[in-house]
Design a protein that fits this description.
Blueprint (H helix, E strand, L loop, with lengths): L2 H16 L2 H7 L4 H15 L4 E3 L4 E3 L1 H25 L7 E7 L1 H18 L3 E7 L6 H4 L3 E5 L7 E7 L3 E5 L1 H7 L15 E2 L8 E6 L2 E6 L5 E2 L2 H9 L5 E4 H10 L3 E3 L10 E6 L6 H13 L10 H13 L1
Helix pairs in contact: 1-4, 2-3
Length: 318
């Protein structure tokens, strides 16, 4: 691959990711006119427009989307070839681009990235946190770390941590309003609603036998932020669904109590997602193995017949 074409691929991938000509220029230490000229030369060579320009940002034309897809694949294949030849499979080094959710990425994963960087100083890590959905392939990420099921059929996934979900409430709330004796009793209680993505508002799901049931609940408080709703539960405002990762320390200290613990809920396992068509680099495999080693121990010693049955079924499907 000619050097100038390879450089054009890198330039265009960066431009598509930043969606800004001035941003791409700053990243490459170019002037904005120089970056604009470079894009113009690529379009002139191909005889098509790749980008729609406005005063504030850019968007890709259909031809630009095609160019980006092939450029990303080719650059990835060239990097893989160079790594195999240079022996980086046994000596991780090079650039690793990782995406994660905002809160979990900031509080939990960022310290682990720091520890990983100390162990593998030759690996350069670009760690970005965002709660918006991302396209790993189009935006050039090596992996994303997310709770929940795989969002894109083009991706492969590896489970980093099993993470069950439970109903919980503070002792203060349960003393005042009592504990529900069955799932249906939740409709009479004050429920704190965590609004996530496109989930139906106030619909809680639980596992009944071999299928998932839905229950409409209500409450005075709701938020799209997990830390906020957890704080409200600690303050005694109602019953909440959270994962054992979030609950463990509060249950162990007695600040929260599990509600209907024998009722299994859909889990919120932690996964790492990566483009399925790529062979993983040594640095990517090393980072994933590092995370798996860290997230191993169970958090809440809760094991019931219903939970065992649900977990065994899930493991059989995985």
């Amino acid at each position: 691959m000619a050097t100038d074409i390879a450089s054009d691929f890198d330039f265009f991938i960066l431009l598509a990711r930043l969606k800004s000509m001035s941003g791409a220029a700053r990243a490459l230490d170019l002037t904005p006119p120089a970056a604009t000229k470079r894009l113009g030369l690529i379009e002139q060579r191909l005889g098509v427009r790749l980008v729609n320009r406005t005063t504030r940002n850019i968007s890709l034309t259909p031809e630009g989307e095609t160019y980006l897809r092939y450029a990303t694949q080719i650059v990835g294949q060239v990097k893989q070839m160079e790594e195999e030849i240079s022996g980086t499979r046994t000596d991780p080094h090079g650039l690793l681009r990782v995406n994660a959710t905002l809160g979990f990425g900031r509080t939990t994963l960022a310290p682990l990235v720091s520890d990983f960087a100390k162990r593998f100083p030759k690996v350069e890590i670009q760690f970005e946190v965002t709660d918006r959905p991302i396209d790993l392939v189009a935006e050039g990420f090596d992996m994303a770390i997310r709770f929940g099921e795989i969002p894109d059929s083009r991706l492969s996934a590896r489970r980093i941590m099993s993470n069950r979900r439970f109903l919980c409430a503070s002792p203060k709330y349960l003393e005042r309003f009592g504990s529900p004796e069955r799932v249906e009793d939740l409709v009479k209680h004050r429920c704190i609603i965590h609004r996530q993505n496109d989930d139906a508002y106030g619909v809680w799901r639980y596992i009944q036998g071999d299928h998932v049931e839905a229950l409409k609940v209500k409450g005075a408080l709701s938020s799209n932020d997990g830390d906020i709703v957890l704080r409200w539960a600690l303050d005694g405002h109602g019953i909440l669904i959270r994962s054992e990762w979030d609950l463990a320390k509060y249950v162990q200290s007695g600040r929260l109590k599990l509600v209907l613990p024998e009722t299994p809920l859909p889990s919120a396992d932690l996964f790492v997602y990566y483009p399925g068509q790529r062979n993983q680099t040594a640095r990517a495999r090393a980072f994933i193995d590092f995370l798996v080693d860290h997230f191993q121990a169970p958090f809440l010693p809760v094991e019931t017949g219903a939970l065992v049955h649900a977990r065994k079924k899930k493991a059989a499907r995985t």
